[in-house]
Write a structure and sequence with these properties.
Length: about 325
């Protein structure tokens, strides 16, 4: 088994791949560890897959997974994690903005007893308005809600001990939250500054719209952190609030009609009776939704998870590895 598994999502990066592959091998030569490089082609429409096939043909340590279509970075990360065999898993971007030479520093920090070492692009070389500033806001929110203070959740360059990722299932844009999952599982998480270079070839795949997706995923993370195993709590409290509003509205409407306090008003002269009935109906719905959510949670925990991607081709994987992955 290799000591290190380096896996990289690839989407239309043909201009960067040759130099990237060379830099990874140069960094690994300095380290001297056994390693494998797993490229996950996320449905590229350029010549990225052809180049990756050439890399795999030239060196058996290079492995390629090719998706049938573009599934997104999270799915590509999940495929890389599932296929990796190393003791330490290292994801990174394929756009040459990460420096493979920083891997040695990540491993040195990992050897201090940490389970996750996250890269921090302290001197980030991206557009401030569209990339850096929204990222800072998102990182602050993630750190606050997730309870794991990191400066840069968006940096793909990280080092994970294998055991902290064995039960991680990724959906949506959840790949950036892996350090939070690791911390929930009892892992020790830290970060170190890493180099970051401006993109010199190809086009960035991300923009301001991604920040909105992060906000949506944060809601999911908060729900999972607090109510994953007992969703009836959040729906139940929402039902209690709805019932309370219903009772207050109905009671106040009765006071106005029968006690003329603070002034007399029939039921048809005030919207309170309508509000009482609407909130009563919502309260019942919240409780029923909570029960349905409880049933879904039990189904989730008791059933086998399905992969969020389909693979078209795999290169340099033997049958035993495929069997292990299926298990």
């Amino acid at each position: 088994m290799p000591k290190l598994s380096i896996f990289l999502p690839v989407y239309n990066e043909e201009e960067n791949l040759e130099r990237l592959n060379q830099k990874i091998f140069e960094a690994m030569a300095v380290l001297g560890h056994t390693f494998e490089i797993i490229y996950v082609d996320d449905g590229s429409s350029d010549h990225s897959l052809e180049l990756l096939k050439q890399f795999a043909a030239a060196d058996w340590r290079v492995k390629v997974i090719s998706f049938r279509r573009n599934y997104g970075q999270t799915a590509a990360m999940a495929a890389g994690i599932a296929a990796a065999r190393g003791e330490v898993l290292i994801p990174m971007d394929a756009d040459l903005q990460n420096d493979p030479a920083d891997i040695v520093r990540l491993l040195a920090k990992l050897d201090e007893g940490y389970d996750v070492v996250s890269g921090w692009r302290k001197d980030r070389q991206d557009a401030f308005i569209t990339r850096t500033f929204p990222s800072r806001i998102a990182n602050g929110l993630i750190s606050k809600i997730g309870g794991v203070p990191l400066h840069d959740y968006g940096c793909s360059l990280k080092a994970y001990r294998r055991d902290v990722l064995k039960d991680v299932n990724l959906y949506g844009e959840m790949h950036r939250f892996i350090p939070i999952y690791a911390a929930w599982a009892g892992g020790k998480v830290t970060e170190i500054p890493v180099a970051h270079y401006p993109r010199t070839a190809g086009q960035s795949k991300y923009g301001l719209s991604r920040t909105i997706k992060v906000v949506f995923d944060l809601v999911t993370i908060k729900f999972m952190a607090s109510y994953l195993t007992k969703p009836i709590y959040v729906f139940g409290w929402a039902g209690v609030v709805a019932f309370a509003i219903s009772a207050f509205s109905g009671g106040f409407a009765c006071l106005m009609k029968f006690a003329s306090w603070p002034k007399h008003a029939d039921f048809i002269q005030t919207p309170l009776p309508v509000l009482a009935m609407v909130m009563l109906g919502l309260g019942v719905q919240f409780f029923l939704m909570g029960l349905i959510a409880e049933m879904l949670v039990r189904t989730y925990h008791e059933s086998q998870g399905k992969p969020i991607y389909t693979i078209k081709t795999k290169l340099n994987f033997d049958e035993s590895e495929a069997a292990n992955e299926r298990r």
